[in-house]
Amino acid sequence: FQTMLRAIRFTAAAALLLAAGSAQAQQNTTIRIGYIPVMGAAQLFVAQGEGWLKEQGLNVQFTKFESGPNLIQAVASGTIDVYNAGFAPLLVARAKGQDIRVIAATVVEELGIAAGADLAPFLEGKKVSEKAAALKAFRQKHGRPVKFATQPLGSGPNTSLQYWLWEVIKADKEDVEIVELGIDATQRAILTGAVDAGSIREPALSIIRKQNPKIKLVADGAEIFPNFPGVVLAVTGDFAKRDPEAVKKLIRLTVRATEFIEKNQEKSVKHLGEAFGRGLLPDDILLASLKSPQTRFLADPNRITAPATKLQEYQVKIGVLKKADPVDPLFALDVYKEAIAGR
Fold first, then answer.
1. Nearest CA among 193, 219, 199 for reference residue 148
2. CA 112 to CA 120: how far, in whole Å?
3. Distances, alpha carbon 68 to alpha carbons 7, 138, 271, in Å
4. Is 39 strand, coil or helix?
């Protein structure tokens, strides 16, 4: 009888352990997140650094990409669940039939134009209406067009640069040459003088200005494209269907991290080293990037739907897209509303 009782107790204990292990397995969700190394990715790394992702049972695997269009290719191949990069490439992805949904914003007006020592004196202090003439004056003096570095066609940096050149300052196309590069290559090209200027975000802007103070910000995000939808958080349709609760957790953590960063910039810095250069960037650069006027954090995707429509219209105009489709279905606004209800 005692032997039988011990066997029963052993079986019961094993069952409890199995049940606990099963519950733990159900609680933990592995999420493959692709991101680009810009300040719009700060929220997720703050959430990771503060331990919030682990608390919510989210096992996150980060992979860095050089541009949004490159990341979209990974999404299409099924190797990425969550997209943390610029909004503009999502319009192209949707046009190609990819099922991906924006669940939160992270920043707006993040893109600026930085000019090197040769070009900056032509543009610095000029009114918007005078900048096209400044580019022409540069071409006449140097005997060549102004070289602007930016990311690939269809990306946010490329689209916003073209919008600024042709719609805002109304530059003459013979005065401009656009060079398509990755994020790091653009930064190096501006810093070394391989190009005269380029589209740039934080922390790259703070990095190159510290290394070469002659580099100037000659157009900020508000001038280039007011309320431009920058980096967003988006999920694949498959992941949204497979784990809707994990999606809501990501939304809530993005909102929480956005609020945390605004109130705790110095404390946030220690969490960002992995995202930007794997600890190679000094804290003063990261802090300057967080405080930069080029970094306007927000989480509510409702704030970017109208400028997203305007962005899509312009992508049609420059030939990135064949036609404009309703933008609202690209946003999971109902999921965002449900996720933050009661906060």
1. 199
2. 13
3. 58, 31, 23
4. helix
Query: Encoding tokens for residue 168?
Result: 């805002």
Peptide bond between residue 203 and the one before it cis (omega within 30 degrees of 0): yes
Determine how β-strand 176-180 pairs with β-strand 146-150.
Answer: parallel
* 197 within 8 A of 119, measured Cβ to Cβ: yes
Provide the terminal-to-terminal Cα distance of the chain, rounded to the nearest Å: 56
Distance, in Å, from the CA atom of 156 to the CA atom of 83, rounded to the nearest integer, reads 14
Which of 151, 187, 149, 179 lies closest to 276 in space, CA to CA?
Answer: 187
Percent with pLDDT over 70 in the chain:
91
User: Hey, what are 250's tokens?
Assistant: 């990501």
> At 324, is the pLDDT very low, low, confident or very high (cuts 50, 70, 90)?
very high
Assess contact for 197 and 114: CB atoms under 8 A: yes
The predicted model scores a pTM of: 0.84
Mean pLDDT estimate for the chain: 90
Distance separating alpha carbons of residues 199 and 197, to the nearest angstrom: 7
pLDDT digits (tens, 9 = 90+) for 219-262: 999 999 999 999 999 999 999 999 999 999 999 999 999 999 99
pLDDT at 340: 95
**Once rounded to an integer, what is the mean pLDDT over residues 304-321?**
95
